[in-house]
C-alpha cells in the first residue's frame, strides 16, 4: 500500500505541546535556514568589506558583529571609529540608531513571555536577538505556536542566525580583498530592500503600511535637514502622521 510522503514541517505543525525547551530551540535553529537569514548574511558579507577598508581588525569586526548585532548600528559605530569620534558621541550615535529596536522589543516580549514562569534573564537573552529579520519572523509565526514554546524557539532562531552571520563575517573579512567593490556594495544593499519587503508583507494594519509610506517620503527630507537625527524624526513624525491619518479615515472627523 502506498503511503503519502512526509509533509515538511511548517509553522502549523509546531503547535504540538513542547516536550522540552531544547526541542523548541532546535526547531528555531532549523527555521533559521531560510532566505531572510541568507539575505542578512549577504549584507554582512558586504559589511566585512567596509570594516576592512575602515581599518578595523578581524577581532574588532567580529566583536561588533556579535555584540552590537543590528547592522545599521554596526555601520554607525564603524563610521564613528574610522572618523576618530570620541566614545561618548559614538555611544550617542549608536543609541540613536538603535532606538528603533526599543518599541520592537516592547512589542515582542509580551508575545514570548509566559506569565509567572519566564525569568527576566531569559527575556534579556531574547532581547539581544531583536533585529528586523528575527522580529518580522517572530511576529509572523510565533502567535501560531504554544506560548511555552515561543521563547526557546525565538532564542534558537536568533542564536542560529547570529552564529552563522558571525562566522560568515569572519570568513568574508579574510577573503574580501578578492571581492569587487561593486559586489560588496550590492550585497550590502540587499538588507534594506529585504527589510522593506518583509515589513510590508508582515504588516497587518493599514496604519503600519501608511507609516512605511510616510517614512519613505520623509526620510530623504530629514536626512538633508536633520542629519544624524533623521531616522529618529522620520519614525516619530511619519508614525504619528500615519496613526492620526488612519484613525481619522476609520472613525471620521467626529
Note the gap between the termini. Answer: 67 Å
Number of domains: 2
Report Rg: 20 Å
Helix content range: over 70%
Low-confidence stretches: 1-18
**Structural category:** mainly alpha
Q: β content, as a range?
A: under 5%
Number of strands: 0
Number of helical stretches of at least 4 residues: 12
User: Average pLDDT value?
Assistant: 83
Order of helices and strands: HHHHHHHHHHHH
Keywords: Membrane, Transmembrane, Transmembrane helix
Organism: Roseibium aggregatum (strain ATCC 25650 / DSM 13394 / JCM 20685 / NBRC 16684 / NCIMB 2208 / IAM 12614 / B1)
Transmembrane segments: 31-50, 62-81, 121-139, 151-176, 182-203, 232-249
Protein name: Branched-subunit amino acid permease
Describe the structure.
The chain folds into 2 domains: 183 residues, no CATH class; 52 residues. It has 254 residues and is an all-alpha fold. The longest helix has 29 residues. Helix 4 packs antiparallel against helix 5. It has 12 helices and no strands. It starts with 20 loop residues before the first helix and ends with a helix.
Key words describing this protein structure:
254 residues, 2 domains, transmembrane helix, membrane
Question: Mind sketching the topology for me?
Answer:
Blueprint: H1 21-31, H2 35-53, H3 58-67, H4 71-82, H5 87-98, H6 101-112, H7 120-128, H8 132-141, H9 147-175, H10 181-202, H11 206-225, H12 230-251
Helix pairs in contact: 1-9, 2-9, 2-10, 3-9, 4-5, 6-8, 7-9, 8-10, 11-12
